[in-house]
Amino acid sequence: MSMDPSRLARFPFLDEAKEYAADSGILLGELLLRPSFEDARNRGRSRILGALEQGDVGERAMSTDFDILMEVMSYPMARMMVSAIGDTFLVKRYALAEGVTLDRRLRDEKEGIALQVARELGVDAVEVGGELRMHFADFLRFTSKMRSREWKLVNTEVHSGKVMLTRTRFARVLQQALQDRIESELPLPMSSEMSAAVEPYLTDLKARLDEKRKRYSMQGMGEVKADRFPPCMKRLLAMTQAGENLPHSGRFAITSFLHTIGLDSEEILKLFSTSPDFDASKSRYQIQHITGEVSGTEYTPPECSTMRSYGLCHDPDRTCERVKHPLSYYRRRMGRGGYQNASIK
Ligand code: SF4
């Protein structure tokens, strides 16, 4: 049963989409150079811009078969452009955005193609009486980075080695699977001809990438010294800056930490604004709640034992051995300039 091409355009990483593209008879050289395929190249670039700006590759209206074909082709184009730039941050950002887009599109789908997507991403899953079940090993593989409790295997229902998942949660795991796959595949090897052909499309992408990178790099942090953060907070901050979704406990920990060491709500908001599901008013409210502007209660970050129980303690170092609280870590590091040297026995 072959799929409607307009659906393929929504899932362009599927083998069937590749076959559809191959059947159209367009050769790579033509795709890269022929003026009539400019549309696929521009849309390829807009996928990447969307990834940088919104954390989602975006949608566009498709009214003709040609539009659909160009949309399918924009996926390999985007991959080549990301590869030509060859920047790790961009690869991560782009992979995340393709994943987030997949998640969103799977949620919109009426008759699910989730199982087909799962199969192609190497996820062992079945549908039993309308319920989706995923092999527990795959579930573990793709949820290991998800910190919130709902993703712990003990909090799921497992039947004969398969984890039962709602459509929403199933889609979220597939987001991770696609993201991991793209991250592992890119950058693609590029011939000099390929690189030369995509070069004209890269100028503004590179400029935007530089802008983004600047924005992510501790802007507005004033006197705050991120290199003195404890490893747990460094990691939470890096995840925020890379646009990864944090579990609530992680968001709480980093927000209250940043607040306690002296950032105001707007500065914290700026750091959070890179998240793919960023919602300014919601985030502002959450931040102001934690900083006490809304609730009247000023929260402080959790101590190490609590961080540990939430799975948020990460890669503790030698200073960690001496502290019970991430704030004490920071204070020790901020304290006397030569503290670190002085403490080495
Ligand atoms: S020991 Fe404490 S300060 Fe160190 S990484 Fe773990 S939670 Fe953070």
Walk me through this protein's architecture.
- The chain has helices at residues 5-8, 15-23, 28-33, 38-53, 65-85, 88-108, 114-120, 136-143, 167-185, 192-198, 203-216, 231-241, 248-260, 265-272, 280-291, 304-309, 326-334, 339-343, and strands at 125-128, 131-135, 158-159, 162-165.
- By secondary structure, it is mainly α.
- It has three domains: 5-86 and 194-210, no CATH class; 107-183, no CATH class; 217-343, no CATH class.
- Strands 1-2-4-3 form a four-stranded antiparallel beta sheet.
- Strand 3 (158-159) and strand 4 (162-165) form a beta hairpin.
- Helix 4 (38-53) crosses helix 5, helix 4 crosses helix 6 (88-108) and helix 6 (88-108) packs antiparallel against helix 9 (167-185).
- The protein is globular, with a radius of gyration of 23 Å.
- Bound molecules: iron/sulfur cluster.
- Residues 230-232, 304, 307, 313-314, 316, 320, 323, 326, 329 line the site of iron/sulfur cluster (SF4).
> What is the average of the pLDDT values?
86
The global form is globular
- Strand tally, please? 4
Largest sheet: 4 strands, antiparallel
Number of distinct helices: 18
**H/E element order:** HHHHHHHEEHEEHHHHHHHHHH
Major beta sheet, strand line-up: 1-2-4-3
Hetero groups: iron/sulfur cluster
Instruction: Please indicate the percent range of residues in DSSP E strands (runs of 2 or more).
Output: under 5%
Low-confidence stretches: 218-222, 336-345
Indicate how many domains the architecture comprises. 3
Using only C-alpha atoms, the radius of gyration works out to 23 Å
Q: Given the helix and strand composition, which structural class is it?
A: mainly alpha
Distance between the termini: 70 Å
* Helical proportion, percent range: 55-70%
